[in-house]
Amino acid sequence: MSSSTPITFTVAFRGTPHALSCLPDSTIAALQARLEELTDVPPSLQKLLLKGKNVVAQNRDETTLIQAGFKNGLKLQMLGSTSRELSSLQSVESEQRKRERILRERALKPQAKLRSTGTSDVSFLKYRFHELTPLAHLPNPGAAMALLTKLSEDPAIKHVMQIHELSVGTLTELAPHEHPGLLGLNVNAGQAIKLRLRTDRYDGFRLYAEVRRVLCHELTHNVWGDHGNNFKELNSKLNREVVEFERAAAIGTRSLLDSGDVYQPASELEAEARSYILGGVDAVPSGGFDDSPAERRRRILDATMARLRKEEEELEQSCGTGHSTNA
């Protein structure tokens, strides 16, 4: 191809195609500067994908389009965060660091006595997620950071981490195009937990309840690497404790680990459990239907756990931890 004959190709960013025409000897850096004008994504955050492979070379100031394999009719996808989104993420991270600094300072102060409704600040600092890291090159990292923060501060999750002394170095996300088919991954027994937060098309985020169930599964891998009976027993226990914690909190019998405020959880689990019970004639004993509050709570809990066990069997196929010791 003559160096004076432009190459025409398309770069799609968040569903919007951008038709471009550049000379073959134009550099990758020049192309990225043009894309920044079109999308407000800085070159350092741009990721150009061709069939899932990033075509941005390290020496982008010298690599030409023709050297990078560009040709007429090529269709690429670009991932990255805009300058505004990056600013939002930095603001969230700054607030997160501020909270962590306050907690560290509080832990170093002499404690007169431990709270009767929770554990010590030192224990709380130890058994938690020590770092939250969204993927900055994916769309809307600020929203991903907010979801990771919600998971890390979920009272039921904090509760089971304290009880079972579970600590996670980094809580981060899985990119759908980089890990197709996986919903979660535990690296080195808690060094990092990676969760699929986004939909496959990057046009939104998965339901919170679904992501949290995957998180419980991956927390179990802190203790057991494969999906054997020991894993299933502990994972079932974690799920049951999460459900029991939220039910107890809903009726005001349990306080948060780090404050005196009563936690008021969402009722998705209980509502779903009730849908399994209503109309179920097999559950009605011959002597009549016991509708006492204690029996009703037991039935709802049993139905919830039965559903969670079924979903857990499906989740094992989407977990990258138990299938590879080198993950």
Give your account of this protein's structure.
With 327 residues, this protein is α/β, with parallel strands linked by helices. It folds into two domains: 7-64 and 71-80, Phosphatidylinositol 3-kinase Catalytic Subunit, Chain A, domain 1 (Ubiquitin-like (UB roll)); 87-280 and 289-327, no CATH class. Helix content is 41%, strand content 14%. The chain has nine helices and nine strands. The chain has helices at residues 28-39, 83-108, 121-126, 141-152, 155-163, 208-220, 229-250, 268-277, 293-315; strands at residues 7-13, 16-22, 47-50, 53-54, 74-79, 129-133, 168-173, 184-187, 192-195. The chain has a five-stranded mixed beta sheet, with helices on one face. The protein has a four-stranded mixed beta sheet with strand order 6-7-9-8, covered by helices on one side. Helix 2 (83-108) packs parallel to helix 4, helix 5 packs across helix 7 (229-250) and helix 7 crosses helix 9.
Please write out the topology.
Layout: E1 7-13, E2 16-22, H1 28-39, E3 47-50, E4 53-54, E5 74-79, H2 83-108, H3 121-126, E6 129-133, H4 141-152, H5 155-163, E7 168-173, E8 184-187, E9 192-195, H6 208-220, H7 229-250, H8 268-277, H9 293-315
Pfam families: ubiquitin, WLM
Domain WLM: 120-309
Protein name: WLM domain-containing protein
Write a brief caption for the model.
This protein has 327 residues and is α/β, with parallel strands linked by helices.
